Amino acid sequence: MPGQIERLCIERGLRMTGQRRVVARVLSEANDHPDAEDVYRRASKLEPKISIATVYRTLRIFEEAGILQRLEFGDGRARFERTESEHHDHLIDTSSGKVIEFQNAQLEELQEQIARDLGYRLVGHRMDLYGVPLGQAAPAKDEE
Amino acid sequence: MPGQIERLCIERGLRMTGQRRVVARVLSEANDHPDAEDVYRRASKLEPKISIATVYRTLRIFEEAGILQRLEFGDGRARFERTESEHHDHLIDTSSGKVIEFQNAQLEELQEQIARDLGYRLVGHRMDLYGVPLGQAAPAKDEE
DNA sequence: TTATATGCAAATCCTTTGCCGTCGA
DNA sequence: TCGACGGCAAAGGATTTGCATATAA
């Protein structure tokens, strides 16, 4: 039984090779936001002879087919997640690196309006929030 | 007469060398969002023997001193702008590459609130909008 | 069969670093 | 003076690519 991603690949007419199935499966089963190295590591367990070049090529192809979303959190490498019907943004916990997904309709609306006011039609956006857990670290400046 | 950035450098106790003055000046005079290569190119006109390594080192030092802001628009290289008292975000015109700055207090407030609702204190964020000029390209799907 | 995909290693792009001579305070 | 700085070239990390072989359809 093909996973969600493999199904999408077939739908979009991508040639399904053993390697692509493995990458598709790794991504279907991921609940986090793996980078290429992570995907390679996980895929290698299922298909030891897969190469990192194939992983990169496959990720790019999946992204171009709209199956994957590329995320960049500013640490120099790209992370991937499957495209979901409901759009969401990310909050990165800077103290642990944990990534939290959230949705906010008001925010989406506001972004469209801002673009419109500037004379543009919004075709995309990227928004990442960086935060530390409340009650951790020092919120005020003059405490110690 | 030192520019705004050189003044900040002095304020923060950075040792002022000829190269740093040149980089500071280039950035003080920039009205766009140059990447390291751009800064190097512009600095070279004022100081032909400056090296790209020095430009990178200086940009990093200025950034760490809070004098510069590092921007990443997803094209693989960092861009820089001087830190301004009033925060702003960017809208990138995907048809021309032009970058438009904007401020929106409601947006900032909403971001803080979202973080708070998730149990976080917002320590930073990054938001870029991507758009095409209104009236250009096809907004509807079934026209031609 | 035949265009497309994969492996491997080399290449690229952006950025950082080691080393050693130089310069600012 | 003397520790910080700059130049050069080499190193690094992430990602892409050329080429010969293998494979899906």
Task: Give the N-to-C terminal Cα separation of chain A.
Answer: 58 Å
Which strand order does the major sheet of chain A show? 4-3-5
What is the H-and-E element order of chain A?
HHHHEEEEHE
Unreliable stretches of chain A: 140-144
Summed up:
Chain A has helices at residues 4-11, 18-29, 36-46, 52-64, 105-117; strands spanning 68-72, 78-82, 89-93, 99-102, 120-133. Chain A is α+β, with helices and mostly antiparallel strands and 144 residues long. In chain A, the strands form two sheets. A three-stranded mixed beta sheet of chain A has the order 4-3-5.
Characterization of this structure:
Chain A folds into two domains: 4-82, Arc Repressor Mutant, subunit A, CATH 1.10.10.10; 89-135, Dna Ligase, domain 1, CATH 3.30.1490. In chain A, the strands form two sheets. The first copy, chain A, has a three-stranded mixed beta sheet. A two-stranded antiparallel sheet of chain A has the order 1-2. Mean pLDDT of chain A is 91; it is low at 140-144. Chain A contains five helices and five strands; from the N terminus they run ααααββββαβ. In chain A, α1 (4-11) crosses α2 (18-29) and α2 packs across α3. Chain A is of the alpha+beta class and 144 residues long. Helix content of chain A is 40%, strand content 23%. In chain A, 23% of the residues are buried. In chain A, β1 and β2 form a beta hairpin. The first copy, chain A, has helices at residues 4-11, 18-29, 36-46, 52-64, 105-117; strands at residues 68-72, 78-82, 89-93, 99-102, 120-133. Chain A starts with a helix and ends in an 11-residue tail after the last strand. The A-B interface holds A 72, 74, 91, 93-94, 100, 102, 104, 106-107, 110-111, 114-116, 118-134, 137, 139 and B 72, 74, 91, 93-94, 100, 102, 104, 106-107, 110-111, 114-116, 118-134, 137, 139. Chain A binds a DNA duplex (25 and 25 nucleotides) through residues 15-20, 35-37, 49-54, 56-58, 60, 76-78.
